[in-house]
Task: inverse folding
């Protein structure tokens, strides 16, 4: 069951999210002026952004204490981001490509599971579909 978190429960995931956003700002700064830092640092910032949001999301989900199926889905999404992060900095191009393919497969699986409604117990009020369904039920004659 979905529950709202108080500020204390959100503090660590949000702090990590803010740090992750700062790394994204640095990425765009590099895009605007590539002389700011090396291309390798750009790849490290890309990987950090992806890994940082994966960890922040797991921390956020753990505070919600989701049911097992929802927890498995959250871990799967975080692992997809971690594979994507590894792809950014992995020195062996062949293995980096494999990591990228794992990330793609897990992202596709995650969206597919959303589309088929798995897990059934998942009712995150932050999803637009829930609000749209509630609204249509209220407006029904």
Result:
């Amino acid at each position: 069951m979905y529950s709202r978190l108080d500020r204390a429960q959100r503090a660590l995931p949000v702090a990590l999210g803010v740090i992750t956003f700062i790394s994204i700002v640095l990425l765009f700064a590099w895009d605007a002026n590539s002389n700011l830092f090396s291309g390798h640092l750009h790849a490290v910032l890309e990987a950090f952004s992806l890994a940082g949001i994966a960890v922040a999301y797991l921390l956020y989900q753990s505070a919600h204490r989701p049911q097992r199926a929802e927890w498995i889905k959250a871990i799967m999404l975080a692992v997809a981001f971690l594979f994507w992060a590894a792809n950014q900095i992995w020195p062996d191009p062949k293995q980096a490509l494999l990591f990228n393919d794992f990330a793609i497969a897990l992202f596709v699986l995650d969206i597919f599971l959303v589309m088929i409604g798995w897990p059934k117990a998942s009712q995150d009020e932050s999803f637009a579909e829930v609000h749209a369904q509630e609204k249509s039920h209220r407006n029904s004659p």
In short: Residues 127-131 have pLDDT under 50 and may be disordered. The first helix runs from residue 7 to 32.
